[in-house]
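ARCHIVE CARD
CATEGORY: sequence design from structure
SOURCE FIELD: tokenized fold
FIELD CONTENT:
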């Protein structure tokens, strides 16, 4: 079971992650979406496409842009479509 935790809270937990470039991408239904806040931040990867971000909230603290997703990835990255990955101090393992 892979978990994504930050500030003492588990934000995602699943046996069905997809690992790309060392990042675990969790299925959306394994993520506590009510703890994520959509961000205006976006980025572009030449082979995956355009990513959008979420901020995490735990105990009144916000971790800005600590999760991301590719809602419409390029064909080469189709396996991560709609899945969510974490960084910026989020422990995944």
């Amino acid at each position: 079971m892979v978990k994504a935790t930050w500030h003492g809270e588990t934000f995602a937990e699943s046996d069905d992650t997809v690992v790309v470039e060392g990042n675990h991408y969790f299925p959306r239904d394994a993520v506590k979406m009510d703890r994520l806040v959509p961000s205006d931040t976006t980025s572009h990867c030449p082979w995956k496409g355009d990513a959008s971000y979420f901020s995490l909230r735990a105990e009144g603290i916000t971790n800005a842009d600590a999760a991301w997703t590719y809602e419409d990835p390029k064909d080469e990255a189709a396996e991560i479509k709609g899945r969510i990955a974490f960084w910026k101090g989020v422990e995944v393992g």
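CARD ANNOTATION: The chain has a mean pLDDT of 97. The CA atoms of residues 8 and 77 lie 31 Å apart.
SHELF: design records, drawer C
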